[in-house]
Amino acid sequence: MTVTIKTPDEQDKMRIAGRLAADVLDMIGDYVKPGITTNEINDICHRYITEVQGATPAPLNYRGFPKSVCTSVNHVVCHGIPGDRKLKSGDAINIDVTVIKDGFHGDTSRMFFAGKPTIQAQRLAQVAYDGMWLGINELGPGTRLGDVGAAIQKHVEKNRCSVVREYCGHGIGRSFHEDPQVLHYGTRGTGLELKTGMALTVEPMVNAGKAAVRLLPDGWTVVTKDHSLSAQWEHTVLITDSGYEVLTLGAADRA
Ligand code: MF3
Ligand code: CO
Ligand code: CO
Q1: What mean pLDDT do residues 3-22 have?
Q2: 98, 117, 132, 174: which sits with the fewest CB atoms below 10 Å from its CB?
Q3: What domain count does the chain have?
Q4: Residue 2 included in any domain
């Protein structure tokens, strides 16, 4: 396992890629309404990334993935493939955007709702969001990866939800998925010790029901086995001397 340490120059490139990925999510929010198809969401993001940002959508053709973003609706956990399904009022959708700019990746996802969200979907999205931030807040030089997973797992399970085990966060940089694996469950004081200059994602997938998932025959779409709702948020984060820097904050949250 080799974990890359980004030089100051590479860190600047990661900042740019992260900001672009966040800008795509800022842009797409207003389009998430009943009646839009996930393909239309994909195409709007694709054009924005390629034509406005002069960047590359990392998912397109990644290990054969056919689209430019992942769109995961309701009980879809992750890696949903955009298609001709129209969103209906109350649908919850995770849009996961990864861009490549100047050789570096920025990876981020958020939950959106078409029309009026159900109370349950809103609550689940909040549990996943707070779990992600509790994990991020652990980050810094000297943190062990088990501290991150434990913080997330504790919060999620306290709220009677479950953490998906089969998919995790990851190191990120010139490659989309680098070492280490960032599990969203675990034991404090165990696992890799983080160092300044590492970049990784925190992206917990949280199910309202049981943790078990199933892969659909398309080879990509991951769903909850019990068909319960699932929610996910993702940030790309740099480890700094003083703690961490979130590279994929939306414009509203940037200083
Ligand atoms: N963006 C996802 C992640 O957070 C990975 C998507 S891989 C794809 O790691 F091929 F489905 F795009
Ligand atoms: Co990721
Ligand atoms: Co992602």
Answers
A1: 98
A2: 174
A3: 1
A4: no
Distance from the CA of 203 to the center of ligand 2, in angstroms? 7
The upper half-sphere exposure of residue 27, i.e. CA atoms within 13 Å in the direction of its Cβ, equals: 18
In a domain, 3, yes or no: no
Q: How far is the CA of 183 from the centre of ligand 3 (A)?
A: 14
Residue-wise pLDDT for 64-111, tens only, equals 999 999 999 999 999 999 999 999 999 999 999 999 999 999 999 999
Q: Which residue's CA is the nearest one to ligand 1's atom 12?
A: 59
Looking at ligand 1, which atom is closest to the CA of residue 170? 9
Q: Confirm whether 215 is domain-assigned.
A: yes
Instruction: Give me the helices (H) in the chain, please.
Output: 8-28, 38-47, 119-137, 145-158
Q: Among positive and negative, which fits the CA dihedral 133, 134, 135, 141?
A: positive
Whether 210 is in a domain gets the answer yes
Q: How much distance in Å is there from the Cα of 99 to the middle of ligand 3?
A: 10
Whichever domain contains 56, its CATH number is 3.90.230.10
With a CB cutoff of 8 Å and minimum separation 6, the contacts of 38 are 71, 73, 80, 82, 83, 84, 85, 87, 93
| pLDDT confidence tier of residue 169, bands split at 50, 70 and 90 | very high
Residue 136 banded pLDDT, cuts 50, 70, 90: very high
